[in-house]
């Protein structure tokens, strides 16, 4: 009789039993069959979930497509959508998916574990490189290019140069003809405005529209049509010449005139050039109008860039002298003298010295000077208009002598000399021949003859 003593359960056995690890063969068989059933049920469940997801996604996509097509139908763009869709499908059919694919990415699905395995394809690329290297060393490498190399080295073919030149020439001719037509249309408005101005000067009041049309010898409807067309041509001329005006205005920027004023002067010059443009001479409008733009901007800078206005002729001399000095300084490396500038420009020395005194900066007489500054510049500046007592006495004696000499002339000759040379006047103001003619109600040629006769009598008296 053998007494069976129950074995105590160790801690390891308790842990194995708690997590479900079988101990004998029957338990192992039962455990494997149970796992197989669970795996098959899990796979079936995942397949059902995928099927349901595809069904719902397909139905949602169909509803979304129907809504999009309905909206396109309402907007009236369904035909455009169908044409674009057909073009896309045709291009997709000709597209080589195998050659244009990126790296050969392979996707494998493990049905048992439902895992997606992604292969980058780098291994195949390395094998291909090694094979090419071996073929290159052996000397039997054929020129084969991949689709990636073809796309990388692909360039859009250039258009035929002759066709491009012809197209550009035709475009320039069309622009030139358009500018000429617009200039001709603007001339119509200019002529109509001249007629209106003439009628206004004659009547002394602004003419009505019907009277304006009557003076132009056209109907009111035709006058309105011509005015609208001319104003349209004016606006188009200003728009087409905008870039040219801005380009020329940059050369006069920073000379004391605002850039907007330069642009405005250029626009006025464009209209002035359009009035005088003659298409029959064969020149382009843009080439012709450049002269008027530069002239208008130059006159604007000359008249308003300085505090004291300098005459246009003197301003031209100043520019010539400055350009000549720059040329001589660049050639010789030193500051040129007035004599060298006179030889280069052909201008007299006196004219060059006068031009050198004109561009001086104008200062304020209220500016304080000294160290420290406390005295006004006006207080230390001499008044050159006041002569010395000796000079005043000499001038009075000369005036009395001239007055005694003039007494022997006729009253008309005496009056002409007094007004012409300012004799007997405190301010010494001299008048021109035209001003004297207006005072005496005669022509300036008659005044010149009287002046010549009177001076000849005075010379004979002195001799």
UniProtKB/TrEMBL annotation:
Assigned keywords, A-Z: DNA-binding, Sigma factor, Transcription, Transcription regulation
GO molecular function: DNA binding; sigma factor activity
Source taxon at top rank: Eukaryota
Record-level GO BP terms: cellular response to light stimulus; DNA-templated transcription initiation
Region (Disordered): 1-20
PROSITE patterns: SIGMA70_2
Domain spans labelled RNA polymerase sigma-70: 432-458
Compositional bias annotation for Basic and acidic residues: 1-16
CDD domains (UniProt xref): Sigma70_r4 (cd06171)
Alphabetized NCBIfam families for the sequence: sigma70-ECF
Protein family membership: Belongs to the sigma-70 factor family.
Name assigned to this protein: RNA polymerase sigma-70 domain-containing protein
Organism: Genlisea aurea
Taxonomic classification: Eukaryota, Viridiplantae, Streptophyta, Embryophyta, Tracheophyta
């Amino acid at each position: 009789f053998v007494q069976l003593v129950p074995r105590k359960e160790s801690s390891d056995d308790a842990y194995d039993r708690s997590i479900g690890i079988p101990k004998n063969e029957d338990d192992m068989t039962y455990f494997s069959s149970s796992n197989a059933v669970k795996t098959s049920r899990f796979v079936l469940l995942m397949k059902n979930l995928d099927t349901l997801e595809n069904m719902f996604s397909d139905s949602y996509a169909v509803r979304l497509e129907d809504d999009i097509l309905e909206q396109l139908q309402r907007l009236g763009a369904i035909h455009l959508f169908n044409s674009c869709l057909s073009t896309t499908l045709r291009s997709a059919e000709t597209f080589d998916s195998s050659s244009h694919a990126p790296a050969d990415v392979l996707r494998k699905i493990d049905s048992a574990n439902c895992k997606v395995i992604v292969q980058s394809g780098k291994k195949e690329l390395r094998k291909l490189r090694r094979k090419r290297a071996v073929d290159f060393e052996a000397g039997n490498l054929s020129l084969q290019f991949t689709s990636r190399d073809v796309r990388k080295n692909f360039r859009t073919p250039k258009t035929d140069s002759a066709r491009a030149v012809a197209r550009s020439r035709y475009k320039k001719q069309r622009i030139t003809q358009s500018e000429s037509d617009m200039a001709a249309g603007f001339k119509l408005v200019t002529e109509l405005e001249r007629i209106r101005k003439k009628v206004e000067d004659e009547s002394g009041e602004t003419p009505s529209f019907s009277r304006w049309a009557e003076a132009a010898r056209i109907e009111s409807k035709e006058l309105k049509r011509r005015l609208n067309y001319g104003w349209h041509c004016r606006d188009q001329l200003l728009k087409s010449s905008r870039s040219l005006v801005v380009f020329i205005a940059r050369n006069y920027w920073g000379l004391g005139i605002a850039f907007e004023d330069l642009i405005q002067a250029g626009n006025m010059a464009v209209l002035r050039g359009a009035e005088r443009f003659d298409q029959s001479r064969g020149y382009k409008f843009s080439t012709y109008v450049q002269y008027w733009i530069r002239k208008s901007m130059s006159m604007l800078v000359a008249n308003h860039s300085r505090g004291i206005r300098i005459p246009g002729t003197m301003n031209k001399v100043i520019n010539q002298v400055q350009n000549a000095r720059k040329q001589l300084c660049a050639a010789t490396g030193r500051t040129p003298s007035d004599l060298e500038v006179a030889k280069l420009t052909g201008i007299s020395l006196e004219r060059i010295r006068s031009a050198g005194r004109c561009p001086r900066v104008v200062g304020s007489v209220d500016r304080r000077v000294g160290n420290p500054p406390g005295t006004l510049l006006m207080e230390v500046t001499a008044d050159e208009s006041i002569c010395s007592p000796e000079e005043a006495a000499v001038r009075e004696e000369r005036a009395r002598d001239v007055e005694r000499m003039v007494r022997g002339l006729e009253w008309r000759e005496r009056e002409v000399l007094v007004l012409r040379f300012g004799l007997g006047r405190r301010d010494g103001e001299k008048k021109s021949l035209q001003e004297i003619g207006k005072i005496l109600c005669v022509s300036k040629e008659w005044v010149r003859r009287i002046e010549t006769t009177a001076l000849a009598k005075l010379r004979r008296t002195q001799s």
